Every structure is written in C-alpha cells, then in structure tokens.
Amino acid sequence: MIRAKYPAVLIAAIGLTLAWPAMAHTGESGLVLLLPTGYFVLGGASAVLVSFALVFLWPPAHLQHLWSKGCFLGTVRRPSQTAVSTVTFIFLAALILAGLFGSRDPRANPLPVTIWAVWWGSFVFVQAICGDLWHFLNPAIAPARALRRFIGATEPLLAYPAWLGCTPAIVLFGGFAWLELIDLAPDDPARLAHFVLAYFTVAMAGMVLFGERAWLARGDPFTIFLRLLAHLSPVDPRPIPNDPARRQIFLVFPGARLFQLEALSLSGTAFLLMTLGSVSFDGLSRTFRWLEWIGINPLEFPGRSAVVTGNSVGLFGLWLAIVAAYAASILLGRIVSGSWRLKDAAGTLVISIIPITLAYHFAHYLTSLILELQYVVEIYGDPLAQGWNPLDLPANFVSASLLNNYSAVAVIWTLQAGAVVIGHIVAVAVAHLLNARMAGSGTRAALAQVPLAALMVLYTLFGLWLLAAPNIG
Description:
Layout: H1 7-17, H2 37-57, H3 60-67, E1 70-77, H4 81-101, H5 110-130, H6 134-137, H7 141-151, H8 167-181, H9 189-210, H10 212-218, H11 221-230, E2 235-240, E3 243-252, H12 266-285, H13 288-293, H14 308-337, H15 342-349, H16 354-380, H17 406-439, H18 443-447, H19 450-468
Helix pairs in contact: 2-17, 2-19, 3-17, 4-5, 4-7, 4-9, 5-11, 5-16, 7-9, 8-12, 8-14, 9-10, 12-14, 12-16, 14-15, 14-19, 16-17, 17-19
C-alpha cells in the first residue's frame, strides 16, 4: 500500500499513463510526413523492440511490486442496478422512437449520434477510466428482470451449454462490426433503430432463457468487451466484508487490475482478437493500398456499395489472420518454454492484448469524435428537429476547421503514433508478468515470450503504417 505522502506521485503517474490511447480515426485531412513513412514506422517498432529487451532484463517481481501499489480513497455505496438500468432503458426507448418516427436526417436525429458517438465512440473510454459503469447502465437488465418476474421464471429456463462458450458474442459482435463498417447506411435512423431493437430482443431472450449471469458473461458481446476494458481502470472497487452494499475504492496504476482476470476460454480469446481486428480493418479498408487490392481506384472511389463484398471478406479475413498469428506465437512459445499448457497460455497471455485493443479503438474514433460530438450538442438541443436552440448556438456551430488545420493534424498524428507505441510497450510488460506467473522467471521461460513480442512488434509496424498510409479520408 502506498503511504500518505505518495498519492500525489501515483496520481501524476496515472495522469501520464492515461494518455496512452490518444489516437485517431481517419481525419478530414491527411498529414504529409516530413520524413519517409518507413522512418516513423521503424522508429516506433524499434521502441517496442527495445522495451521488450528492457522488460526481459527486468525481474518480474519488481514489475509485480510496481503494479501492486494502491492508494485508498474512501468508501462508496453501490447504486441500485435495477434502478439505473430502468433509467437507461427509458432513455433507449425514447431514442428508438426517435429513430423510427423522427427525422431521417442522421444529423438531426439523436439515435445515430448517441449510438455511434456517445456510446460506442466515447463511453468505451469512460469505462476504461472509471471502471465497470456498464454493470449498472446496461438498459436490458431491468426489463429482463421484470419479464422474468412476469412469467414467474425465478431460475433460468435453460442451462447455458458449456460447449457454446462465447460463440454468441462472436456472432453478435461480428454483425455489429459489419453494420458499422460495411453496411450501406449504418447512420440511417430507422434502419439503425431496427438493428438496436433486434439486438435488444436477443439480449432480453438470452437473459431470460439462460439467466442474467451466464448470458452477460458469455453471450453478450458488449458486456464482455466493456468488462475487460474496465480492468484497465485506475479505479479499483473492492468489496467490504459483511457490507455488500458498499465498496472500498482504491486508486491503482492503470492496467494493474488486468492481473485479476482469469484466463479466457478459447472462444473468449477469439472474441477479444475480433474486437482488435475490427478496428484495425477499418483503418486498412480506407487505405489506397487496400482499395487497389480489391480492384477499386482510390482516386475515383464509387461509394460503400462497391466494396461490400471485398470489405466483408477483408473484415473477417483479418480477424482470422490475427487469430492464426496469435495461435502460432503461443505454439512457438510452448515449444520454447516446454511447460506452457497451450489452452491456459492462449487464454492468459491474450489479456495483454487488452491495452492494444483500447488503443486501436481510440485510434478508430478520436478525430471523428471531434466532429461528431459537436453534432451531439446541436442535436440534443433540438431532439425533435423543431428548430429549437436553447443554447443559442451559432448557425455554423459544427465545424471541421480543426481537422483541416495542418498544425492540429500534425499534433493529433504525433499523439496517435506515440500512443500506438506506448500501448504495445504496456502490452509487452503485461505479457512478461503473465508469462512469469505461468512458467516462472528462468531464461527458458523468458525466451518463451519472444514469439508473442515479435508479433506485437509486427502489429506496431502495421498500426503505424495505417496511420501514415494515404487513405480516402
């Protein structure tokens, strides 16, 4: 435990490390690098490689000691999960009604900006900073509990099949990624409302049939993903004996709670790698190189309808390629270590991918959020598109001028590149400690990390190339 004189140091360190995921989605303007792209890419990958060498020489016990530090902040009372979920359910119902019966203009309807910018674009990072808020905010929990009471189902109607694992989550998240990245009109309010209703129906059915705990742990993709990201949070709520309504709150180093996670199942591992692959493919699909590969002239881009087939194959193909590369790194590590159990190693070491996943997720959204969150302010002031302007916003309130300013874009790109590198460095450090817990700290155990570290270096190269490559914007 950190003594009273150290909290300021810990808080300052956390403030710096919370800058990890300052990355970007495609901006309105590209950045012309003043040096050849390869210099930036190789420089970043070299930093990850050097960090691996340093971590390799750093005794795991010292790393564990650093991450075990914590500062007690106080106690809080847990809110009612049912009450909070009821509020968010009412809000979601209003959004769905707006999507079905409100303006068909995505820039005048609150549903698209709430789903894409407020929830999926922004809330993910709030969750990673503040902890598992989704545990209370999930709008499906309260109505599912009400439905179970209505039909008298005090117990799950069916036992969740163990062999199914996280397969439903993979299927649902794959559909969600396809809708966002490939569907012809993901911003169309009515179309999006129908997709939200379909997902909500599946979530309700899953919780009623298999029980809330089983479905949320293995079937619901967003609960699984957000719970994993919550373990990056510096806020660590700990139960108080004999007082389940309250929690002790500790401030810890970001990522320290990753070591509380149990090894993921093989399907859970595949799911986490899908979340990484989807945001990576979004960057890839916009590059000139990808469009050339699928036979599209990037200078005469015909629109989303022309790339549906190619991008569908690319989205799921990249996921499978990442799964195969990760499996190969684990297999090679098993050969070197001589002690890893493949299933345990795969499910344990994939935890080190979580910081990278958050970083790439942020890369997918930062610059688009600079524009989209302006629309949120404008639309929430006039949710029914009646011409209201309670905040007295100017007519040209929404502006992309920042994204067209070379200096601003240069700063954003520099933050992006640095964040990619730092995210991978953190992942290397986490993998080092996780490996030590499985195989000890001998030379052979340390060498077993080399294949996974090599994969991380290659993925750093890929991520930095995506940032620097010419794209359609």
